């Protein structure tokens, strides 16, 4: 049997053809595929605006910039995420404080966030960055009302969740990244995520001003719109200090072709999740709970077990490359040394001691999954 990783991309002939077609076209970058991809993605997640970027970390950076995050601001995020969720605010000079997770959903616990905010004077914090961890959507309606009470912005880190959704109190389905409750959302097109561009990302928003700023920061702060003068066709203005965070047309062509498969991909991921749940339901193995009405996009399938290191090593010995998501960000040496706040993060730390992500990707066969299940149960049943 081939090695079984925890996640992998699926590249079919139509993906390859799409990239080759772009290679033969007039534009390798800054061409028509970018806008086509942005429009298709915006439609997919039910949002007004989408801005394609070179990766989700760049997307998080310009999302912070578009929300005017600056030196000395304080933001709150979850410790159970990839470091980039926190790092992007650091690029803008902000302090990153952590609040604990809910031990059942593994998501940022709104009560812990509330407690942290209320323990400080008014205006102490500026924003919240909740993460749709493993693909499970955060209930942003609740976070929005908390944020509004305290004048905070929200950036949804939806890197794990294209195609996920939750139902709000009005019984409306809210797709991750739809911008109804968050100011903006960020997606990743790294190959372990749902949509593979090699590298790539997308920022979504319903706010026109944020959208215009995202476009400026993506491309050096240079624009041909809203200029102070217009002496001729060559003229452009650099209106602010931006970056080169652009996606190429080859990547956008691949992204477009990958996006078309994501509905099917998320359905298959849920099929795989249900097979795992069925196999582990009467054992001591614990898995992420699913709130009523939520659709988990399942970037990951995480279980919690007593002897995690033992299971990790035993699966490796059987060519199953399970992974750990994540080492809590506040325990990484860089953040440990800074040591923002003193919130109780024991649930995140306890989760980390037991979690392991099993193989989860649409092309995982039933036979491969049965093999994984068997090896997990042999060790842990
Ligand atoms: C992968 C990931 C990112 C960063 O994505 P890149 O596209 O690799 O920059 C950010 N946040 C989370 C939660 C991620 O999993």
UniProtKB/TrEMBL annotation:
CDD domains: AHBA_syn. GO terms for molecular function: pyridoxal phosphate binding; transaminase activity. GO terms for biological process: polysaccharide biosynthetic process. The modification N6-(pyridoxal phosphate)lysine is found at residue 193. The active site is at 193 (proton acceptor). It comes from the Bacteria. The keyword Zinc does not apply. Keywords: Pyridoxal phosphate. Pfam families: DegT_DnrJ_EryC1. InterPro entries: DegT/StrS_aminotransferase, PseC, PyrdxlP-dep_Trfase, PyrdxlP-dep_Trfase_major, PyrdxlP-dep_Trfase_small. Belongs to the DegT/DnrJ/EryC1 family. This is UDP-4-amino-4,6-dideoxy-N-acetyl-beta-L-altrosamine transaminase. It comes from Aequorivita viscosa. The lineage of its organism: Bacteria, Pseudomonadati, Bacteroidota, Flavobacteriia, Flavobacteriales.
């Amino acid at each position: 049997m081939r090695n079984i990783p925890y996640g992998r991309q699926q590249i079919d002939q139509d993906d390859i053809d799409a990239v080759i077609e772009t290679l033969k076209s007039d534009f390798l970058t800054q061409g028509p595929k970018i806008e086509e991809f942005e429009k298709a993605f915006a439609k997919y997640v039910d949002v007004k605006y989408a801005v394609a970027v070179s990766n989700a970390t760049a997307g998080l950076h310009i999302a912070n910039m578009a929300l005017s995050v600056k030196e000395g601001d304080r933001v709150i995020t979850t410790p159970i995420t990839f470091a980039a969720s926190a790092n992007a605010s650091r690029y803008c000079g902000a302090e990153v404080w952590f609040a604990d997770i809910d031990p059942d959903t593994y998501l940022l616990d709104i009560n812990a966030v509330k407690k942290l905010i209320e323990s400080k004077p008014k205006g102490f914090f500026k924003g919240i960055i909740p993460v749709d961890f493993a693909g499970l959507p955060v209930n942003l309606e609740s976070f929005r009302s908390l944020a509004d009470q305290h004048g905070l912005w929200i950036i949804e880190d939806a890197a794990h969740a294209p195609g996920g959704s939750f139902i709000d109190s009005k019984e409306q389905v809210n797709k991750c990244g739809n911008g109804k409750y968050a100011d903006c959302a960020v997606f990743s097109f790294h190959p372990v995520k749902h949509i593979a561009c090699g590298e790539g990302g997308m920022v979504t928003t319903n706010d026109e001003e944020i959208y215009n700023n995202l476009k400026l920061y993506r491309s050096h702060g240079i624009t041909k719109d809203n200029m102070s003068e217009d002496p001729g066709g060559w003229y452009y203005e650099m209106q602010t200090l931006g970056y080169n965070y652009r996606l190429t047309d080859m990547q956008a062509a691949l992204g477009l072709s990958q996006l078309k498969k994501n509905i099917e991909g998320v359905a298959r991921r849920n099929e795989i999740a249900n097979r795992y749940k069925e196999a582990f339901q009467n054992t001591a193995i614990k898995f992420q709970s699913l709130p009523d009405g939520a659709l988990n996009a399942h970037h990951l399938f995480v279980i919690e077990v007593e002897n995690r290191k033992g299971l990790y090593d035993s699966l490796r010995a059987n060519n199953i490359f399970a992974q750990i998501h994540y080492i809590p960000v506040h325990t990484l040496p860089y953040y440990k040394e800074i040591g923002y706040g003193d919130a109780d993060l024991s649930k995140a730390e306890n989760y980390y001691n037991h979690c392991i992500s099993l193989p989860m990707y649409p092309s995982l066969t039933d036979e491969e999954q049965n093999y994984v299940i068997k090896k997990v149960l042999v060790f842990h049943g």
